[in-house]
Amino acid sequence: MPELPEVETVCRGLAPHLEGRVLVRVDQRRPNLRMPFPPGFVERLTGRRVESVRRRAKYILVHLDDGAVLIAHLGMSGRMIITPERPDSPGKHDHVVFETDAGTIVTFNDARRFGFMDLASADALGDHPMLRTLGPEPLGNAFSGPVLAERLAGRMTPIKAALLDQTVVAGLGNIYVSEALFQSRLSPTRIASTVSGAKADRLAAAIREVLGRAIEAGGSSLRDYRQASGELGYFQHQFAVYDRAGEPCPGCSCDVAATGGVRRIVQSGRSTFYCAARQR
């Protein structure tokens, strides 16, 4: 599933083509994705000018000139595809097609249909069911070691599971949590409440740094993800531990024969990759 860097990259790709443009035509090609489209979806979007394209956690937020906000989630396989003109015929999984007054076409393609789209008022955006319980943005000014320690206080779950909880920190997913824990030298099995003080400072800094590098690389392309331009992301080539089970740890000189190198364990049904010698 696309994580924060992938969604941020998509937003940055969409912004030059949508901001300041009018949606002159909207085609909705099915009644639902993961959830039904809101009533009057096409009518409420057609003719509206896009004021801005932003991100909150893993959600794309398209702010419109009438105060409405289009909320979009890519799900597991969703893609926003930008083309200079409308194709002769839509693809099988092209579910929503937006056309701007500049003639640009933005197509939401989702083979598995786990994504969704909804409309909300900008004034009530924070009360939307998908957004109201989200934690702080890890790239925002409000995020820091002390803030992270406060949100982890009293949590007796492993730190890996706590960081995947979107009410603790918004937008983090399996890949970048593994990478940030590696960089901060913290074991994914460590109890979350023990991450405080200098440990929380290290982890908060690692989260910011890993996410920043991933955004610069255009995100990570493992299966379905592509940027809005159609290009692949390249951060998977920089993984330190994710999907590298059995390989030497890039951060220490542990003996692979003795330690097994980078290890893979399963936590809450998700694969975790880490170095037991480096991460404590």
State the main characteristics.
7 helices; single chain; 280 residues; four-stranded antiparallel beta sheet; alpha+beta; 24% helix; 10 strands
Structural features, described:
The protein is α+β, with helices and mostly antiparallel strands. It contains seven helices and ten strands. Strand 3 (59-64) and strand 4 (68-73) form a beta hairpin. The radius of gyration is 20 Å and the shape is elongated.
Question: Secondary-structure blueprint of this entry?
Answer:
Elements: H1 4-18, E1 23-28, H2 41-45, E2 50-56, E3 59-64, E4 68-73, E5 78-83, E6 94-100, E7 105-110, E8 116-121, H3 145-152, H4 159-164, H5 174-183, H6 197-216, H7 256-259, E9 263-267, E10 270-274
Helix pairs in contact: 1-6, 3-6, 5-6
**What does the main sheet amount to?**
4 strands, antiparallel
Which oligomerization state do the chains in this entry correspond to? single chain
Order of helices and strands: HEHEEEEEEEHHHHHEE
Q: Give the strand content.
A: 15-25%
Number of strands: 10
Tally the helices. 7
Q: Structural class of the helix and strand makeup?
A: alpha+beta
Stretches where pLDDT is under 50 for at least 5 consecutive residues are 221-227
User: Whole-number radius of gyration?
Assistant: 20 Å
User: What is the rounded distance between the termini?
Assistant: 28 Å
In spatial order, strands of the major sheet run: 1-6-7-5
Mean pLDDT over all positions: 91
Helix content: 10-25%
Query: Which term fits the overall shape?
Result: elongated
